[in-house]
Design brief:
Elements: H1 2-12, E1 21-22, E2 26-27, H2 33-43, E3 47-52, E4 55-61, H3 62-70, E5 91-93, H4 98-107, E6 112-117, E7 120-126, H5 127-151, E8 159-163, H6 171-184, E9 193-198, E10 210-215, H7 219-231, E11 236-241, H8 253-260, E12 265-269, H9 278-290, E13 293-296, H10 300-309, E14 316-318, H11 331-338, E15 344-349, H12 358-371, E16 375-380, H13 385-391, H14 394-406, E17 412-415, H15 421-429, E18 433-436, H16 447-454, E19 458-461, H17 465-472, E20 477-478, H18 484-496, H19 498-512, H20 517-531
Parallel strand pairs: 2-3, 5-6, 8-9, 8-11, 9-10, 11-12, 12-13, 13-14, 15-16, 15-18, 16-17, 18-19, 19-20
Antiparallel strand pairs: 1-7, 3-4, 6-7
Length: about 525
């Protein structure tokens, strides 16, 4: 391990020019934004450096154009680059090491760094580019190790997953099933074991992978699950954690399991609250203490954990949610197969509950329909089973009543069922604009956001924690929380500016490529090996 760290240190000392985009796209301060957008489109880039007399004086990103031109309805021909660019531009001299560049990016909370030589522009780099250099040696080391594992089946790990699992209808169950499939298809682990969490009174016809079931409200069941794993040949445990998944106050029964299990645990955190109450804080603090590593699905989660729980950064790993790997195609041919060829399709999907903010998207529709009468908003998914137990279909009925009150029955369609993955993807591929109207900022991961990215959709979203990271890469357009007029403005802008719409679609698809399930599965396998010191 020491040799590997030394090797990483050596890479961090390489000059920042080791992985930069040389001669990045440039424009002058007097150029029109229309010209800047043309450069972005022709160069397939998300940023243009503004240069005056060979010196970089600013930078314009897609985010700048969306926020300062599209959002404010400024004219693309009359608005000049100097009025939109971010300045002063942050630069680094070419001979400086990668470690300094990474520190500058993080200290200034920026995504791109201009590289200069004696003040003159020579290149542009990003955190992702720099980390690719550092991580390449780790990838090759991992590839060599995994090759050895494939040749020696006895060396493969057996992983147990603690989670809900299909056929239970639950977002965490779907996620775990996708993760297990992704890792299994790498053929570098033994057959997995699922320890499934059952809700009160729940009975499910589980597949043979499920070796043990925990009764959510029975604390003794958590003890028995730990004893089951301790007696087995399981090497490592992956715990899927979400508040509300486990029994006790804020799910505290899972701590009983963690205190008794003798195998190392890697915990996947689906939620990290920036302002947790005392009990929520106590439970997550225990999970952090009793896990060898935890993973978060948005980079912002690392900072929250370090600040609130005084946890060392190397214990927390960023691994994205994971998304399907499908081709990037036009919505037109898919619409025809669904009988939607004459409609402009907006959509939102997921298990329906009050926390999704769908009412705000519906209230935005009259303004949108006024500009584009062909709009059809698809609300895809059935009511969340846990919500249905406590309040039936009252929320869905309130949405139906709202549609009637607004007189937009012809512009909204509810697809009230749990869709198979292939059918869901078809609906997403037929979508022109995907809407995420979540009303709360604290959401740190969203599987529906990843699905929309992976199918290359133009996304309008509120700035919850996960979405903010996507927006910073120019892969989604922002709207405000609980603000139908803001949702309408963003959707209308995308409908009116086809070039911007198409650019966001392509950026969304490109952004999602590192997050496809095979890549996420490999990152978990690497983390399991690292945890075990292999």
């Amino acid at each position: 391990m020491g040799a590997l760290n030394s090797y990483s240190d050596a890479f961090l000392r390489l000059p920042v020019t080791s992985n930069m985009k040389p001669d990045p796209p440039q424009s002058s301060p007097e150029s029109s934004i229309s010209n800047v957008v043309e450069i972005m489109m022709s160069e397939d880039t998300g940023a243009v450096v503004i240069v005056e007399e060979s010196r970089s004086v600013g930078i314009i990103t897609e985010k700048d154009i969306l926020r300062r031109v599209v959002k404010t309805a400024r004219d693309f021909e009359e608005t000049l680059a100097k009025d939109v660019m971010t300045k002063p531009v942050i630069t680094i001299e070419a001979e400086r090491p990668i470690s300094d560049a990474l520190e500058m990016l993080r200290e200034n909370n920026i995504r791109r760094l201009v590289i200069t030589e004696e003040g003159a522009l020579v290149g542009l780099t990003t955190e992702r580019r720099l980390l690719e250099v550092v991580n390449e040696q780790y990838r090759m080391n991992s590839l060599s190790r995994l090759t050895r594992v494939m040749l020696d089946e006895s060396a493969r790990l057996r992983v147990a997953y603690i989670s809900t699992f299909p056929p239970r209808e639950c977002g965490i169950a779907t996620y775990t099933n996708d993760l297990v499939d992704a890792i299994s298809r790498l053929y570098v682990t033994k057959s997995p074991t699922i320890v499934a969490i059952n809700d009160r009174g729940g009975y499910y016809n589980y597949p043979s992978l499920v070796g043990f079931q925990i009764d959510r409200e029975e604390v003794d069941s958590y003890i028995e699950a730990a004893e089951y794993i301790n007696r087995s040949d399981i090497d490592i445990v992956n715990l899927q954690h979400e508040y509300g998944l486990f029994g006790g106050i804020w799910g505290e029964y899972i701590l009983t399991f963690l205190e008794r299990v003798e195998k190392p645990v890697v915990t996947t955190l689906h939620t990290v609250l920036p302002e947790p109450g005392p009990d929520a804080h106590r439970v997550l603090e225990g999970i952090l203490r009793l896990s060898e590593h935890v993973t978060v699905m948005a980079r912002v989660g690392i900072g929250i954990i370090e600040e609130l729980y005084l946890t060392f950064g190397d214990k927390v790993q960023y691994i994205p949610h994971g998304c399907v790997n499908v081709p990037f195609i036009s919505s037109v041919p898919v619409k025809k197969g669904l009988g939607l060829e004459d409609r402009v399709v907006l959509s939102t999907f997921g298990l329906i509950s009050r926390g999704k903010g769908i009412e705000y998207a519906i209230r935005a529709l009259p303004l949108i329909v006024k500009e584009e009468p062909r709009v059809l908003y698809l609300v895809i998914g059935e009511t969340h089973p846990e919500v249905r137990k406590h309040e039936g279909e009252s929320y869905r009925q309130s949405l139906l009543d709202l549609v009637g009150d607004l007189g937009i029955d012809g512009n909204v369609r509810f697809v009230n069922r749990f869709l198979e993955k292939s059918e869901l993807i078809s609906f997403l591929q037929a979508t022109d604009i995907y809407i995420l109207p979540y009303p709360n900022k604290d959401q740190i991961s969203s599987g529906t956001l990843l699905y929309a990215l992976s199918t290359g959709k133009a996304i309008v979203s509120t700035p919850f924690l996960h979405a903010e990271e996507v927006m910073s890469e120019g892969a989604a357009m922002r709207c405000e929380f609980r603000d139908p007029e803001s949702i309408a403005d963003s959707v209308i802008n995308l409908l009116q500016f086809g070039d911007v719409h198409d650019k966001i679609e392509r950026r969304a698809y490109q952004y999602s490529r590192e997050m496809i399930w095979p890549n996420v599965g490999m990152r978990y396998v690497n983390l399991f090996h690292k945890t075990l010191g292999l």
